[in-house]
Specification:
This protein is mainly beta. Helix content is 6%, strand content 37%. The strands form seven sheets. A six-stranded parallel sheet has the order 2-4-6-9-11-14, with no helix packed on it. The protein has a five-stranded parallel sheet with strand order 7-10-12-15-18, with no helix packed on it. A hairpin with a 2-residue loop joins strand 20 and strand 21.
């Protein structure tokens, strides 16, 4: 069976890690070393960890849990020849910190490490050998594993980036290596797993997404497709391709009916066919009381509020405003959205709308009985 040593506090000062061969010693064979806090101080430059590389010899598995691992080279040039593995129950483990006493020292990682917490180098030097790997896990924009600190980092090995949980929003970026504070250098054998190098830039095309890691900045960035806006989709569907008489600009009026493309889009119009009015204003008896009403085609899901004018939240890039006035000067007469069977009947008699628009009817709060001279208008911006 494998013996286990849990290092979770204090300082363990040793020249080497040893383990009896298979079948020998208490427990026999392989062992497990769990880092969950505390400091491992290495006091010999010939430090090694049993790696099971020869038949019959033991293997010591080294795990990093939430408490992390701190290694102090004690001013020496030492190597860690087995993988430091991700362990514990959290998404990110506690990572690795290089501590520096007795003059700092250099720690060389030469195995395929899978721990995914931060690697922190504030004194001495960390060398990722050509055979070594560092694992990075990224998530939301800017959130993920980092190699950081103020010490020296020599990168001759490979960065392995887990993008499974990454936020795939165009323009997102992650600072993997803190070039601005570290003394970082990238050697001739440095690589980013799965990426192709061009100068100091590493690129991976993954379907529609393009990932880029820059040695000059230490940052990973994402270029992803940007979904077409509803207005852009509408422009394309209506044939506004930019050719003569088909200007797609929101302010343009290709059919010269006095309605801009934005207003045509907002009210479900046809930008290449003069529409005239896109609204329906009429007197309507609601519950036996006559009101002036205005019916518009609004983007489906538009939410209107207001104590005077009815103003929508921004929807698909459009804000609707429905206003009323008694003199065409002050647009301050209160407006409410009209409902009821009379309104439903009114809307049912109007032309069928394209998908994406819904009829909405508004009325003045004052009836035509009390305020016979009144006006309603709509604005879309």
């Amino acid at each position: 069976t494998a013996a286990t040593y849990n290092h979770s506090g204090g300082t363990l000062s040793i020249p080497a890690i040893t383990r009896d061969a298979v079948g020998g010693g208490a427990g026999g064979g392989n062992g497990i070393l769990n880092f969950d806090g505390g400091i491992l101080q290495i006091t010999s430059s010939s430090f090694t960890v049993p790696d099971g590389s020869e038949n019959g010899l033991p293997l010591v598995t080294c795990n990093i849990k939430e408490g992390g691992a701190t290694i102090d080279p004690y001013g020496l040039a030492v190597g860690f020849n087995v993988p430091l593995r991700h362990s514990g129950t959290a998404t990110f483990d506690g990572g690795l910190t290089l501590a520096g006493t007795n003059g700092g020292g250099t720690l060389t990682l030469s195995a395929a490490n899978t721990y995914n917490g931060d690697t922190v180098v504030n004194s001495g030097a960390l060398n990722l050998a050509s055979t070594g790997q560092l694992a990075f896990t990224i998530g939301a924009n800017g959130v993920g594993t980092r190699l950081r600190g103020t010490g020296t980092v020599i990168l001759d090995g490979t960065l392995v980036i887990d993008r499974t949980a990454a936020d795939l929003t165009n323009g997102n970026s992650w600072q993997l290596v803190a070039n601005s504070t570290l003394n970082a250098s990238y050697g001739a054998t440095f690589a980013v797993s799965g990426f192709t190098k061009n100068g100091g830039v590493w690129t991976l095309v993954d379907g529609a997404n393009t990932w880029t890691f820059s040695e000059s900045t230490g940052a990973l960035s994402l270029q992803a497709p940007v979904a077409a806006s509803p207005y852009s989709f509408w422009v394309s569907s209506k044939g506004l391709d930019g050719s003569a008489g088909r200007d797609p600009a929101p302010s343009a009026d290709p059919d010269q009916d006095g309605l801009s493309n934005l207003l045509e889009f907002a009210l479900g119009g046809a930008p290449l066919n003069a529409d005239g009015s896109l609204t329906q204003a009429r007197a309507l008896s609601i519950g036996g009381t006559p009101y002036l009403t205005l019916t518009i085609a609004a983007r489906t899901g538009a939410h209107f509020t207001g104590s005077a004018a009815q103003v929508s939240d921004v929807i698909d890039g459009v804000t609707y405003t429905i206003e009323a006035s008694a003199d065409l000067s002050a647009w301050t007469v209160p407006v409410v959205e009209a409902t009821g069977t009379e309104v439903s009947a009114l809307q049912a008699g109007l032309p069928v709308l394209e998908s994406g628009w819904t009829y909405r009817t508004f009325r003045t709060s004052a009836s035509l009985t009390t305020t016979p001279r009144i006006f309603l208008r709509t604005r879309a911006e």
